[in-house]
Amino acid sequence: MKYLRRILLAFSSLKVAISLLILIAIASAIGTALPQGELPETYISKYQVQKFLGLLNGEMIIRMQLNKVYSSIWFLALLAWLSISLIVCSWRRQWPTLKKAMAWIDYRDPKQIQRLAISQTFKIDKPFKSIEKLEHYLINSGWKVQKNSFRLSARQGLIGRVGPPLVHFGLIILIIGATFGALKGVRVERFLAPERSLNLLSPNGINQINLKLTDFQIERGPNGQPEQFRSSIELSNKDFKKIITKQISVNHPLRFKGMTVYQADWSLAAITIQIDKQQKLQLPLKRIEALGNQVWGVLIPKFNNKSEAMLLTVSSEKGPVRFYSESGVPIGIVRPLGESIQSGESQINVIDILPSSGILMKYDPGVPFVYIGFAISLIGSILSIVSTKQLWIIAEKEAKLLHIGGFANRNSIGFAKQFPLIVKSASIV
Questions:
Q1: What residue ranges do the domains of the chain occupy?
Q2: Tell me, what's the pLDDT at 429?
Q3: How many CA atoms lie within 13 A of 84 on its CB side?
């Protein structure tokens, strides 16, 4: 029993709760800074030379589960520990405090009132009449009053005591929702070119929704940098019957039956070239990280005796397209539907560049719980601001004295300013 008590004290400790919150905040910051859910090879190649935070290479990141922070065992353990801490704290402290606040406290001895931070004692001629005046004034001012002979107990703002337990309850629901979403949620990220589609499967493997990209636009600023991406998407059921059509953009996702479709990124999918104004070829583009962050290219092989192999690179759907020889010597720069490039004895024209939209789809069954938990915590936080005030009045008939005193758990200065008005209502000053 002694050890159980120590364990409960440790779980309900405020220092432990704060430490857990700090650890969870640090872990969330790492999960935000470090790309999540990538292939292990990506982390190994990316952080082999330039280590993450100057300390961790790719293998260490994978071993510590930093590539999947929010579903890692240690992060879920922190959430579970915080949940248990909140439950134990609510059970040992918040609930007894709320029950105690709900019960009326009847002060019978004037000395009990005199010990209060705000109290006064007055000489009166008609104590019973003063008690009646105070009762009438307090009721009209929104106080709850309990009268007992020559004693009054009054309180106001009791709803403020409900706030802290509500905050704890909301946080517990929020953590449960976040954990449920991390374990059961699905995250899919794909690059789609216009008129391409993607089949989304339900957890049991039955095809439910087909997502098709009908159009993709990149809005660029005066300096040529992308400022906004817009994708027109079409959702249809397994029989390809259209369900909904909507344009999404950055910070404006589509939400449908628990699924959220985000505009996440952009890329270049393919380039169409024409050889000697006859044959058209659509060649897939691949990102060339060695040449820059946003550079795509394709190697054009020698397609006849009159041509030569070339490397084609591009960084925008509007061009320009740069051509290099096998030895890396620049050959020329052209734009779509512009001038042609000489490859041996052949002429190559760039017809168009096909961009692709980075679509991020998330299905998180824990989102409703997160929203509900957040709403409950927000309501509890607002209620916690409400000041709970308590007041006691005792009239001594023989000594003709009236004792008035009270306190407030918040805004004591405001209660001190209100106290003279309460005293004045008894018509004794």
A1: 2-98, 104-157+387-424, 184-264+359-378, 268-357
A2: 44
A3: 12
CA distance 296 to 235: 30
In eight-state DSSP terms, residue 252 is: B
Whether pTM > 0.70 for this model: the answer is no
Tokens of 1: 């029993």
Q: CA–CA separation, 231 vs 196, rounded Å?
A: 12
Token readout for 283 is: 């060649």
Asked if the model's pLDDT at residue 30 lies above 60, the reply is: yes
First to last CA, the chain: 57
Q: Give the CATH class of 104-157+387-424.
A: alpha beta
| 207 has a pLDDT exceeding 60 | no
Q: Label residue 241 exposed, middle or buried (CB < 10 Å: 0-12, 13-18, 19+).
A: exposed
Max mean pLDDT among 82-91, 267-276, 295-304 falls in 267-276
The predicted model gives 41-64 an average pLDDT of 82
Residue showing tokens 């449960």 = 176
Number of helical H runs and strand E runs in the chain: 11, 20
Answer yes or no: are the C-beta atoms of 127 and 47 closer than 8 Å. no
Residue 380: CB atoms within 10 A of its CB come to 19
Tell me which residue of 212, 213, 208 sits closest to 239, measured CA to CA. 208
Q: Which helix (DSSP H) or strand (DSSP E) does residue 42 occupy?
A: helix 40-46
